[in-house]
Amino acid sequence: MTAATTQTQALNEHNVIHLVPEVDDHLARAHQRQDSSHNDLDGYDEEQIRLMDEVCIVLDENDKPIGSASKKVCHLMTNIDKGLLHRAFSVFLFDQQNRLLIQQRATEKITFPDLWTNTCCSHPLGVPSETGAELEAAVRGVKSAARRKLNHELNIPPEQVPLDEFSFLGRIHYKAPSGEDGKWGEHEIDYVLIIKPSVQPSVTVRPNVNEVRDCRYVSQDELKSMFKDEQYHFTPWFKLICSSMLFEWWDALATGHLDQYIGNNKINRML
């Protein structure tokens, strides 16, 4: 699977409503439920359909919030091809042996089912505690969202992943379709977070089977072997991060030198 290369125009606060009318041009404080009985979602898992009503943060290409829209609206390729872009995060959680916790997404997932990926990847919601216009506030928001989703997907207690133990390593901007039918996809500015929790011996992990089919801790060598093994298939954002930055960060984490990479303000365009 490779990232899409279709050229799209840049969305901003002036044209977003014209191009994608489903976008609310005020970030949500309360969100009216959208009708998820639309044919786009026929045949999918009931819980995953419910989650498609969650409110994502719609962005311009500079990561400025310009509105909000449902998860469903943000992940339809018909909207992505108009330039619709939203905020996301990817968590890389390591244990005290410097092994990375990876997961295989559940078969029930609407986008990228059954693919292997990093510990947790999701979206901050368009609510005050997870939204930020300036980078510092945005990082606080995605860290809060990361704790919420680590608990939802893997039942990791929030107290085992304190906000101050997450490190923000930067952002990637990428676009990728899901599957071969061309219906769903991702177009995200993805905040990369690394955490090596201080809790001993390790965090509690009990996968939510509606979200996670499998999970395991892997060393660098084990992950590289999985990439070479044709039985394993990976999400596009995970492959992009691994091929560009992850192993360098991983080495720095193991040697206590991760600080030199923390707080990168640049948006890495991987389109």
Characterize this entry briefly.
By secondary structure, the chain is of the alpha+beta class. The protein is 25% helix and 24% strand. It is built from 7 helices and 10 strands.
Percent strand equals 15-25%
Dominant shape:
globular
Helicity, as a percent range = 25-40%
Oligomeric state of the chains in view: single chain
Q: Please give the order of strands in the largest beta sheet.
A: 6-3-8-7-10
The total strand number stands at: 10
Description:
- It is a single chain.
- The chain is an alpha+beta fold.
- 25% of the residues lie in helices and 24% in strands.
- The protein has 7 helices and 10 strands.
- The chain has helices spanning 16-19, 46-51, 71-75, 77-80, 135-154, 220-228, 236-255; strands spanning 55-59, 65-70, 86-93, 100-105, 116-117, 120-122, 166-178, 184-195, 212-218, 267-269.
- The strands form 3 sheets. The chain has a 5-stranded mixed β-sheet with strand order 6-3-8-7-10, with helices on both faces. It has a 3-stranded antiparallel β-sheet with strand order 5-4-9.
- The longest helix has 20 residues, at 135-154.
- Mean pLDDT is 92; it is low at 1-5 and 28-37.
Features:
single chain, 271 residues, alpha+beta, 5-stranded mixed sheet, 3-stranded antiparallel sheet, 7 helices
Q: What's the structural blueprint in terms of helices and strands?
A:
Blueprint: H1 16-19, H2 46-51, E1 55-59, E2 65-70, H3 71-75, H4 77-80, E3 86-93, E4 100-105, E5 116-117, E6 120-122, H5 135-154, E7 166-178, E8 184-195, E9 212-218, H6 220-228, H7 236-255, E10 267-269
Parallel strand pairs: 3-8, 7-10
Antiparallel strand pairs: 1-2, 3-6, 4-5, 4-9, 7-8
